[in-house]
Amino acid sequence: MSSLLKAKHQRLVLVLLALAALIGAGLLAMWALRNQASYFYVPSEMAANPPTPGQAVRLGGMVEAGSLKTEPDGVTIRFVVGDGEARVPVRYSGIVPDLFVEGSGVVAEGRMEPDGTFVADNLLAKHDENYVPRELQDMTEAQKRAAVEDTTK
Amino acid sequence: MIAEFGLAALWLAGALAALQLLAGVLALTMRDAEGAAPIAALVRPSAVVQGVLATCSFGILVLLFGETDLSVKLVAENSHSEKPLIFKLAGAWGNHEGSMLMWVTIMSLAGGLIALIERRLPERTLIATLAAQAFVGLGFYAFLLFSSNPFERLDPPAQEGLGLNPLLQDIGLAFHPPTLYFGYVGLSIAFSFAVGALLTRQVTPDFARAMRPWVLGAWIFLTLGITAGSYWAYYELGWGGWWFWDPVENASLMPWLAATALLHSASVLAARDALRAWTIMLGVVAFSMSMIGTFLVRSGILTSVHTFAVDPERGAFILVLLAIYIGGALTLFALRAGTVAEGERFAITSREGALVVNNVALSAILAIVLLGTLYPLLTEAFGVKVSVGPPYFNPVSAIFFIPMLVVLAAGPLLRWRRDSLRRVRIELAMLAAVTLAALAAVAASTAIGLLPLLGMALAIGLALASFMPLKGRSLRRVPLATWGMAVAHFGVAVALFGMACESAFTQERLLAARMGETAAVGPWKIKLEGVEPVAGPNWTALEARLSASYQGGAPVEIAPQSRSFWAPPQQTSEAALLTRWNGQLYAVIGEEGEDGRWQLRLWWKPFVTMIWYGGLLIALGGLLALVGRVSADLRRRHVRARVAVRRGEAQ
């Protein structure tokens, strides 16, 4: 198309082109979001309604006291995340965040294995008093107390 | 006493912004031109004095932080007497109130500068612009004065300050927020220009030329801010990643995408008087994105190191400001866009056509990033918690990014107004051949993912394409702005190459090492020589001494640390980096195991530094274009003045 577009049409074509691209981008985005967003679970939700193995999800809860074990390779750890109702075993290879300790909250990003272990790619723990992973802020006091009671029994 | 001076200066600056707005609106609405003139004359001086007062106020805050005046609440909450001086000063804007004060200061300074130097626009348009600027500013003054007073006193004074988040005690902090704020504020000025032009129906090439330096400036700062922020996250967080699609990162990327589109469409408007309504629209969108960014980062709706205080009132305040500005501007646009006369026409196959495609693709990427960033907030309103990460952002934005790169390579070869692909077929064939050859060569030699593969091939094609517009021209006579374009486009190629290499060829090694043990990662052999305690001004650390040798060469010592700060108590991981021309070795130390072994995490990242060099080149290209444009404008102004003098003499 080497001719100049007709006066009346040019604006229309430009607007339509822009609209089509933006609507296309929007639809594509919504479709991809439904498939790619990773959902957040607490252990009791995970027990009631387990995610498909291999799907990227996030797991949040309390690290149970006494559950933290280091494997012989020195860099893989296993621990149990609980919320007072259910418990999920977690495996993670890497350097743990600084404030990751037993009895404190953690958010693990990763996926369920078919054997029921949660394999974490990344652990988010409290950075300091002011910076708590967002998901843990909403954990009710009752849940926290239950988690602590449960783990200190 | 000095804090009260700061507060008084801030109130006065706010009052002047109100005067500037009122006088501007009156001057624009009064029918009687004689009566309006003295009122209109108030606008420019108000803008200048407002700038001076806001600067005083900010200067006083920096001073208070410098001397750690603990009777000021903000200082007591965010500073500490034993902090190095540079971090004390930088701490002035390392918190919510101070950073907002910095925002209005930069904004009012920019307003003052426009009032002093801008001579191209019709006086009415300039007054409308300054009034719009005052309107935006007023919201921020109200925000500061009514809900975020930085000068609030603490009675009795604190014994000692609470300190600054150690993650933020970094030289990068001194520059990162100001850099981004210059960018955001520059876009607010582009927005004011757009509103001024809409109000007075003067959407002309002169408007685009007046706006362009501000957009360019904002864009350079945003580019630098994003580049620096990315590098900061890379070396400070110790995760070895350079971009996490974190909402806070997206908050700076979205205005950048909009500014990039605006920059290109303003160029079309300035050079060819086309894309008038579109440029105005992008001006509104770009500023909206910087407001959304500010809202996301500062409201506490997201938790990150950027969220200084989770205070629902403040979040609501920013949200209301956001709604007023964006809603108002979009309403104005809807009412007035129809009356903006259509600009010059052009064929699809032309420079303008290519720039339209670039604009549309950038807008689409912007929409994708925006939706991905807001989606978790939306679902949370319905009680579903999700997070959106690279599996969404990378492939979906690539769908628009890749065609945009193709147009980026071909567009600058086209002529304005009307062209044919036949005329540039040799160049296009050459580019296609180089890109395909690169694609085949990379695909044949290594097995890497589709996106890194495409990225590398396109980067090589684009590197060649970026300098093609200079072909056959006398290099000394090429305008500086054209050099700027070539350098910036080359920067895109360089950064893209770095990203593709990093994602394709990074090698990682995670181990628990005994003293004296050697580990290999990529071409490196790394030996753990020892771990020792060290101390800094406000921290202690465990430091690992590693000797790293590249392909069996002479060992170089590197020392990653695990630092413990005591005010506030917090631990951070200081990665050790070893840079070669062809990549970076990245080492992090973890904990000591029960058996005395130390956790080490090592990465070899080929060509990773190209990502940030590319970012710097893009900014350099912007700078060249800015200098070229401004000096050309000044020359033109000088010539006009001389012509006017000659005419006067002749008469």
Query: Largest sheet of chain A at a glance?
Result: 5 strands, mixed, barrel
Q: Order of helices and strands of chain B, N to C?
A: HHHHHHHHHHHHHEHHHHEEEEEEEEEEH
Total helical segments of chain B: 18
Supply the number of structural domains of chain B.
Answer: 4
Radius of gyration of chain B: 27 Å
* Low-pLDDT runs of chain A: 127-132, 145-153
Quaternary status: heterodimer
Largest sheet of chain B: 6 strands, antiparallel
Outline the fold blueprint.
The complex is a heterodimer of chains A (153) and B (651).
Chain A lengths: L6 H30 L1 E4 L1 H6 L8 E7 L5 E2 L5 E7 L4 E7 L11 E8 L5 E8 L8 H4 L3 H12 L1
Chain B lengths: L1 H28 L3 H8 L2 H24 L6 H6 L6 H6 L5 H22 L5 H25 L23 H29 L5 H32 L10 H26 L3 H23 L13 H25 L14 H31 L4 E2 L2 H21 L14 H21 L4 H18 L12 H26 L1 E7 L4 E4 L2 E12 L3 E12 L5 E3 L2 E6 L2 E6 L1 E5 L2 E10 L5 E9 L2 H42 L1
Antiparallel strand pairs in B: 2-11, 3-4, 4-5, 5-6, 5-7, 7-8, 9-10, 10-11
Helix pairs in contact in B: 1-2, 1-3, 1-7, 3-6, 6-7, 6-8, 7-8, 7-12, 8-9, 8-11, 9-10, 9-18, 10-11, 10-13, 11-12, 13-14, 14-16, 15-16, 16-17, 17-18
TL;DR of this structure?
In chain A, 34% of the residues lie in helices and 28% in strands. Chain A is an alpha+beta fold. Chain B folds into four domains: 1-169, no CATH class; 203-417, no CATH class; 424-505 and 608-651; 507-606.
From the structure above, extract its key features.
heterodimer; A: 153 residues; alpha+beta; OB fold (Dihydrolipoamide Acetyltransferase, E2P); 5-stranded mixed barrel; B: 651 residues; 4 domains; 18 helices; 11 strands; globular
Care to describe what's here?
- The complex is a heterodimer of chains A (153) and B (651).
- Chain A is built from four helices and seven strands; from the N terminus they run αβαββββββαα.
- By secondary structure, chain A is of the alpha+beta class.
- Chain A has two domains: 1-37; 39-152, OB fold (Dihydrolipoamide Acetyltransferase, E2P).
- The termini of chain A are far apart.
- The relative contact order of chain A is 0.15.
- Chain B has 651 residues and is of the alpha+beta class.
- Chain B has four domains: 1-169, no CATH class; 203-417, no CATH class; 424-505 and 608-651; 507-606.
- In chain B, 63% of the residues lie in helices and 12% in strands.
- Chain B is built from 18 helices and eleven strands.
- The radius of gyration of chain B is 27 Å and the shape is globular.
- The model of chain B has no long low-confidence stretch (mean pLDDT 89).
- The interface between A and B is large, with 50 and 66 residues.
